Structure formats: C-alpha cells, structure tokens
Amino acid sequence: MVNSILSLAALALATAPSLVAAAPTPEPWQVSDFPVVDAWLQGKCPGKYQPCTQETVKIRKDFDSMAPEERKAYTDAVKCIASKPSQLDQTLYPAATNRYMDYAVTHVNRTSQVHLSGFFLTWHRYYLHLFEEDLKNQCGYTGAFPYWNWPATADNLHGSAVFDGSAYSMSGDGDYVDTGPVVLAPGFALPHGSGGGCVNSGPFAGWQTTMADIPITVLLTGSPLPPTAYDLNQTCLTRDLNTFVAQTWCNYTALELALEANDQAAFDAQINGILGGSALGLHSGAHFIIGSPGSSIFVSVQDPIWWPLHTFLDNVYTSWQTRHPDVANATYGTETAVNAPPSPNVTLDTIEPDWGYFSRDQIAVGELISTTSGPFCYKYDVSL
C-alpha cells in the first residue's frame, strides 16, 4: 500500500509592500486549510460544488461545551430520526425497524470496504455529513453537530456531560453486570468496565438495538456476512464504560502522537492500532470505552454515541491534515479491509462505496478530503 499524494503547485503573489496596505486578517473559513485539495477539485469537477463562505460554514462543537438545551435539542433530533419508518425492504432487512436503524444496516453492509482500508476516513466523513443533513431535513435540527472529546473525558467519564446520565447527556452507563474481562485475543484482555447491562438513564433509556454482534473475523478474512446478519434480534441498549481503556489509549499523549504522525500510514497505526498486537489505537480505544454494541465494528452504529465518537475522529483527522498540509490529501490503504481479499490501492480518483439509499452518488475520494470544499462546509470549534 502506498500513499497517493498530489503535488502542490507553487503559488506566488507579488505585491509592493510600500504601496499596498496590509490586507485585514481573514476569518478562518475564508482561507482554505488545504489549497492542494482545492486545486485538485478545480481541475476534476469545476463548478460542481458551491463555495464555502462565512455565511454558510457550520461549526461543530464539543458536546460538553454546549448549553444543556442545545444538547437536548440534538438528542431529541436523533430520537426523531428513530421515530421515522425504515425505507429498506423488510424481507431483506428485518433489523431495520426505523430510519435510524437503516443507518446501522448501511454501516454493516459497507463495513468490509470502509474499515482498515483506504476509504475509512473519507467514507465516514461523508456518512456523518449525511446523518447531519438528515437531522436537519427530517427533524428540523439546526444546532451544532457535536463531538465527544475522548481525552477531555478520560479521567471522569461518568461526570462528563456526555455520560452523566442526565436528560442533557448522551445517556449514562449500563447497569452493572459482572461479565468478567473483555477478551480481545489470546493474551490480550481488558478489565471489565463499570456497567455491562441495559442503559436506564438519560434520553436513550429504553433505546432498542436490533442486530446481534458479527465476529470481527468476518472482516479480517474477507468473508461474506453471516446469513443471520440482518435478523431481528431486539434487545436493550447496553454500555460498559471503561475508565481503564479511556486513560490508557484515549489520553492526551495518545492524541498528540496521532496528530504528530508524519504520514497517513503512521496516523492510521495511531488511531486504529496494530492488528494482532496487545494495544488499542486512539479510535479503536474509544469504541472499547463504551462496550458492546459500541465496541463491535459492524453494529456499533446502534448506540447513538457512535455519531459524537466519529465526529471527534473526523476532528482528529482534520487537525492532522492542518498540521501536515503537504500530505493533507494523502490516501493510505486498499479497497478492502486489511486487503482481504486483495484489491487495488485507493487514490484520490477512486470512487467511494455508496451509502445505501442515503446517497448513491458517484463520489471520488478526492472530493471528500477537505471540510471546506467539495460537498462540505464546516469546521470545528477547536483545532486540536
């Protein structure tokens, strides 16, 4: 697997400082963080997208920094999506009990292509965007799309606004059930967290999941999904908040190591870990902070915390791009998870897998590289 990096054209602007007054400092959204990406878009699809402007840019926010009523408006909108009927064929997808679970089913359908592959970061960036647009178009939500700041909450999960279990949270921990350690591989186990049972607090108390776990070996071997993947298996949402995982793999040191990675291969290793090793990465660690089903790579979307978790991942990716503008448009990986079965390397010109009925547009990877060009117009309240 090789990095695909578009050469940055040299740009020169000649002015006469003694004759020309200094221009006012532009607002952040008026300057592209990734001019090399804009140049690629200009050449490949001129006029396809509207420019991102001060009037249209959205600012994504830390969930903990949002006012209580703003947080509740967001969770109300998520529940609103879950109140809408499924648009999928119920004979094929019995687990798609509503529009929210349509997203979960779509994620399962694409997991083997868009994880541990060259599509991972950009496919999920657009998937987040589609959900954000759905919150607005289906449920009238106009607030900020929030993120869960993993390192900021690592030392006090239960006391954070995200997980304090109040009406203004993303709901709290599950009831305590002693299920023993979480075994990930021979010789690699995590201590049990503080929950494990049903979530009975906050806005998602009573939330129902509909799909059983799918073994990660399906992903790692390139095997087809089991025939029972979409069977209806309705149960309560469970969580097992794990402070050990949060403090070990999702701390500020781990974040800085990811942000300082020199290329996307090293960045990928920092966020996803090394398969077969005895350590988690920053992003994979965040999943195991939550516990099942949030720690299951196929069906994790069933827990609504999935969205703020991945919005923070996108913030990490965006911040890494900003720190490394010379490789901001790099790609790394093939078209299949861990290259199983073997597939071509992903490049800027490679067409993304679709997002189910939410978007079947033919979109190249390069169109999804920048948050302020292509179909996007957003930034984060804080650059990491």
Automatic annotation (TrEMBL):
Signal peptide: 1-22
UniProt KW Oxidoreductase keyword: yes
GO molecular function, one term: oxidoreductase activity
Record domain Tyrosinase copper-binding: where: 115-132
Keyword set, alphabetical order: Metal-binding, Oxidoreductase, Signal
UniProt KW Amino-acid biosynthesis keyword: no
Highest taxon of the lineage: Eukaryota
Pfam families to which the protein is assigned, alphabetical: Tyrosinase
PANTHER family: N-ACETYL-6-HYDROXYTRYPTOPHAN OXIDASE IVOB-RELATED, TYROSINASE FAMILY MEMBER
This protein's name: Tyrosinase copper-binding domain-containing protein
Organism for this UniProt entry: Cladophialophora chaetospira
